[in-house]
Amino acid sequence: MFGVVVCPRCHRAKGVALSKKTTTCSCGFEIPVLPSRITARVGTERELIDAVRRASAELAGGLAEYERVLQPRKKKRIGDVHARVAALAMKAGDRAHRVRAAAIELSNELEVFSVADLRVVLSALGILDVDESLDELLRANVVYEPREGYYRAVTPVP
Ligand SMILES: [Zn+2]
Q1: Distance between CA 52 and CA 63 in Å, rounded?
Q2: What is the pTM of this model?
Q3: What is the Å distance from ligand 1's center to 7 Cα?
Q4: Separation of CA 74 and ligand 1 centre (Å)
């Protein structure tokens, strides 16, 4: 019996005689031939060549699919934005400066931000009176409301 295993290091498919305990990948990794790792089983060495080829194609297809799925993820993830903004605002100084920095950084990252965005960032900074903070920002003309419920810093500066 022969089988196909996938190298956990370089993710290439490799054919192996199932009587073996390990097989060495072309990348140098010694792949343990475990039943759970065997993706295909065939009876002859000739079938094995096809099985490896098929597994490679599937891996390549899977990889292409994986990369395609990954593409939209390269866009800013909202959770990361909040964390990044909070980390920057944290360094801004006292409470008022932090609130201001949070609004400016949110504007830089998101163009406009909602009260919910501000709440996430401010609560990460230990500031819980979000509505009051937003009022202060609006009164001080640090932010304006270009669309209802969405805010933007007047002069976004890095
Ligand atoms: Zn390998």
Answers
A1: 16
A2: 0.51
A3: 5
A4: 27
C-alpha 18: how far from chain center: 37
CA of 73 to the centre of ligand 1 (A): 27
69 neighbors 109 (Cβ within 8 angstroms): no
> Is the confidence at residue 76, as pLDDT, over 70?
no
User: What's the CATH number of domain 2-73, 3.30.160.60, 3.90.820.10, 3.40.50.720, 2.40.70.10?
Assistant: 3.90.820.10
Tens of pLDDT, residue by residue over 101-151, are 999 999 988 889 999 999 999 999 999 999 999 999 999 999 999 888 999
150 three-class SS: strand
Instruction: Tell me how far the alpha carbon of residue 44 lies from the centroid of ligand 1, in angstroms.
Output: 23
Beta strands (DSSP E) in 30-142 are 30-32, 38-42, 113-114
Sequence ranges of the chain with CATH classification 3.90.820.10: 2-73
- Whole-number Å distance between alpha carbons of 80 and 123: 15
Residue type at 131? Answer: D
